[in-house]
Amino acid sequence: MTKIHLVNIDKPGQATLETYRAGGGYKALEKAMKMEQTAIIEEVKTSGLRGRGGAGFPTGMKWGFVPRNTGKPTFLLCNADESEPGTFKDRILMERDPHLLIEGMAIACYALDCHLSYIYIRGEYEFVANTVQKALDEAYAAGILGPSVMGHDFGLDLFVHLGQGAYICGEETSLIESLEGYRGYPRIKPPFPATHGFLASPTVVNNVETLTALPWIINNGAAAHAALGTEKSKGTKLFSVSGHVSKPGVYEIVLGYPLLDFINNEAGGVPNGRKLKAVIPGGSSVPVLTAAECEGVGLDYESLLKAGSMLGSGGMIVLDDSAKMPEVLSVIADFYAHESCGQCTPCREGTGWAAKILRNLVAGKGRKADIDLLLKIADMMEGKTICPLADADVMPIRSFVTKFRSEFEALCEG
Amino acid sequence: MPKVTINGQEFDVAEGKTIIQAAQDAGIDVPHYCYHPDLPVDGNCRMCLVDVEKMPKLTPSCTTVVSEGMVVRTDNDRVKTAVRGVLEFLLINHPVDCPVCDQAGECRLQDYYMVYGLHTSEIPLSMKVRKRKVIDLGPMVVLDQERCVLCSRCIRFFDHVTKTGDMQFFGRGDHVAIGTFEDQPLENPYSGNVVDICPVGALTSRDFRFKCRVWFLHSTDSVCGGCATGCSMRIDHRDGTIFRLLPRRNVEVNRSWLCDEGRMSFHELMGGERVVRPLIKGRDGMQAPVTWEDAVRSINATLKEVSERDGSGSILGFASPSATNEALYLFKHYLSGRFGASRFEFRTDSEDKKVAIPEDDVLRYTDKHPNSMGALNLGLASEELGGIGGAIEAARSGRIKAGVVIYYKPLVPRPGDEEAEARISELVRSLEYSVVLAAHRADWQSHASVVLPVAAWSEEEGTYTNYQGRVQFAGKAIQPAGDIQPVWEVFANLLYASGDNALWLSIDDVFGKLSETVPGYKDVSLGQAKSFGALPTP
Amino acid sequence: MKKTPKIVNVSDRAEKESTFAKEVLGPLVGMSLTFGRMVDNLTGKVDATIRYPEERRAYSDRYRGTHILTAREDGSPRCVACYMCATACPADCIYIEAGEHPDPLIEKVARRFEIDMLRCVFCGFCVDACPEEAIIMSRETEISAFTREETLWNMDQLMNRKTLPEYGLGYRPNENLVESRLTFVPKEKVKKRIAGRITLKEDVEMIPHVTFDPDKD
Description:
The complex is a heterotrimer of chains A (414), B (538) and C (217).
Chain A: H1 17-22, H2 27-33, H3 37-47, H4 59-64, E1 75-80, H5 89-96, H6 98-112, E2 116-121, H7 126-141, E3 157-162, H8 172-180, E4 203-207, H9 208-212, H10 214-220, H11 222-226, E5 236-243, E6 249-254, E7 257-258, H12 259-266, E8 276-280, E9 289-290, E10 298-299, H13 301-306, E11 315-320, H14 325-339, H15 345-362, H16 368-381, H17 389-403, H18 405-411
Parallel strand pairs in A: 1-2, 1-4, 2-3, 5-11
Antiparallel strand pairs in A: 5-6, 7-10, 8-9, 8-11
Helix pairs in contact in A: 2-6, 2-10, 3-6, 5-6, 14-15, 14-17, 15-16, 16-17
Chain B: E1 3-6, E2 9-12, H1 19-25, E3 49-52, E4 59-60, E5 70-73, H2 77-92, H3 108-117, E6 135-137, E7 141-143, H4 153-161, E8 167-170, E9 177-180, H5 193-197, E10 203-205, E11 218-223, E12 232-238, E13 241-247, H6 260-270, E14 279-281, E15 287-289, H7 292-310, E16 315-318, H8 325-339, E17 343-345, H9 351-354, H10 372-377, H11 388-396, E18 402-407, H12 417-430, E19 433-438, E20 450-453, E21 462-465, E22 471-474, H13 487-497, H14 507-517, H15 526-531
Parallel strand pairs in B: 1-5, 16-17, 16-18, 18-19, 19-20
Antiparallel strand pairs in B: 1-2, 3-4, 3-5, 6-7, 7-10, 8-9, 11-12, 12-13, 14-15, 14-20, 21-22
Helix pairs in contact in B: 2-3, 7-13, 8-13, 8-14, 11-12
Chain C: H1 10-17, H2 20-43, E1 67-69, H3 84-88, E2 94-100, E3 108-116, H4 125-129, E4 135-137, E5 152-153, H5 155-159, H6 164-167, E6 178-179, E7 209-210
Antiparallel strand pairs in C: 1-4, 2-3, 3-5, 6-7
């Protein structure tokens, strides 16, 4: 299968500039620097690359929204605040192949005419940040970054910023707030970051995986990228598989690959002769799919949406028939209650309340009415908040409770 | 101007207004906690969600600017369900300790619960999040974190109005609480405002704490007597006692704010001994109480005698910049009209200059008198005397024999007040014959020939002119005790007794005459002065 | 089509149903109670009057007499000075001053609580309004005094009721909350279940307590 991100991931010493260059690194940047800035944006548009952070918004279009010649600087922020439960793909990329990210960012910065860029890494990834910083130092020393990128008349400074351990800072506006030095609270949109982002200037926030796809697109051309995948989901996607599979880990597959084939062939299938019960295909915040619903579903944005779930960030959690769904949901709800920033009412109170009800249920102290109350809380939260964190809690609650209601009822007395 | 349809009715709305403002202008109430007209929009409470056509989700009306052809519904089932849901969320972790909460009666949680909620709580007590209660935040504020709805109004007030950033959120999720760093006291001169803007009982007043339940209070619209700014305010009182002063929104003067000194100024007023009976100094040099009739007769007779014996120039009128325009007008009208007096003064300090100097960049002005501008406009600053110093000299040298002095204790004390009072005392002692109109008793008043008990701020109606020249009306909140009379009434009685035929029956009569005669005041009406004040034409 | 109303002739029916037993014996049955009481009175089985004040009538358990302020376990007043009673009072006879309670969970406590017993109309609205079961009523009615000042009952008088055992508790809507520990054991056995002749001497706690179970309420 074609690989874009993980081509050299297992090569020893890939994190050093020397090895990276030996494997053809920074060729794409050199090529890009000779292109027109707008031509690169066009190239990305034709490639059909979509944001890999979860929302799947076309990257080229996002870049196209950034106004030019506003008199204000443009900023590119790399979102490496990977905190979604079940997702660990960016970590592998940054840990093993940091120069790929730097090259991707340099290309994006050049295309957006951005001279200052930050990599916002989650606080718990301190060791990753050290690796990236080391790579940055190498790149600076080699003249790849700095006042003249690769000897061209284009200055670029890249900085690593370490978060302080808040899931919400993976949301682009609260990432910007946090980077500005404020409490990591999401902002109300509009205005959108494309016009009023970091320091009230035009800002693009891209996921690590999105940026690391850029060198391949520049090297092989947009058409080659567009040829991969399905009609609307182009290219490849990293999946971090965890749970009840024989070979958990990060896999790169071309979009559209059948879900069940992926679990059985690539990830080694469900171990110990157990049966597949459910799959959370895109990180804890997407609706769960039962084994029956997984039949014939392809791993791409559209077919997962059709099946009632989402591709999300590609953090696939596989559950076999030994999994107790109320307990799984309780863990997920606890996560969102703990990570709710507390800015707006429905999310602040709703996530906490739902988590408490679920903890009560799992402890065997629940009532049947609590199950309906959970659904009511989900209704009360959904679509009424500033950022999508509450919706991310609503989707698992609603799908778990409706699809596995009998398991919840079995826990209740009356 | 965009045309907007709200609940089926079409309105023309000014460009740039948000939906909530447009709805409020149209008289449609949109429930809200975090929105405040004088603070930047935050949009965190989610109570003001409305249904806008062609928008998939409900929209917070405080953040959405109106656009042409927008169709808004604030009353359909979708909105009502959402609002009820948000309210239920706000109440799940609320302690519902209304019986001990000072906000009860003016609490947005109570109000909206009666309109939108009326639900039974579905959360058991053991599940509620407990936070800290009764946290002492300095001289003005008591914090209860449990009652807070986390609307961030207080935080935004300190961030954007005083720009001191005293408060912040702590923690996250449903454990978020507001507070100051390490419970440091709020020593900001405007900290009392957060009590007013807090829509619930999280921030309550230390001064008003447990004094009275709000539904027993009667309100009177007034203007602060603490400095030249003249902030619009509301006096909350019961049974002749003032319990608290609250700001009244006036975009032209104080927006929604009030300084702490102004807020506490009523303690200065309620404290101290009052003059309650007219006093006249007898032959033995001792002051003895007399009736108003006797006092009026004696004053008229003596002043007439002095003016006939020593000429009209020997009579001094020494006014107070804390008296109302009406009082000052009749004061001048009486002395100049009946006895031809021409020497008037009111400055114990440099009030005429201070009136233009702000103390800080929020509200306060250095001149701590509410009506210096009014006194200047009425021509009570004599160039010849140039202040109280000149008056004392003239009295010592015998050029001035008699004087009528109005004296008020300043409501907001400042260093230098004693000196100013000492100068007045000196003036009274230097005068051969002195009539002192005073609200509060002071030792030096024993030197006066006549002492008249007069009403103080909040005990009389009248207008004050602030530093901008804005004429604002202050109402009468409480009935003064004893024989106390408002200053304008004292002079109305003196005028009547001395044979003046004009009838001065009410404040309207005096103000009508005042606006006719004082330059610039012609277009000012008492009605305007009562709402947001009126600026005289220059 | 218009329906013709059905006419019921009442006098016809009365005549039809009239019997000797109904016409003559009926009133006699009704009068039997009267005659029975007459006989009881004549034979001295029941007195028509009682010998007040040595004897008192047993008032209803919901009788609205003088007020009682209930206490917490530690003996401090339950009242949190919310002024609900004063607000509800139609006679304006309750005066309260609030103060700070050292426990932040209670926060507020009444420093002064006075009821002007001469103004009070004993309507019981204060008891209904109270959210804390801090004010209940007794069955005491005798509040006469030599001066008007004495009829102004302060907090101490309202809480420590020396005469309470004699009269018993009165109106208190949430009876199960008021842990009164009252045992109604009359001194003498009453002959008949009708009015009069009950002198109450009961085993009562001086200050009734109120206990809330937070999980139940």
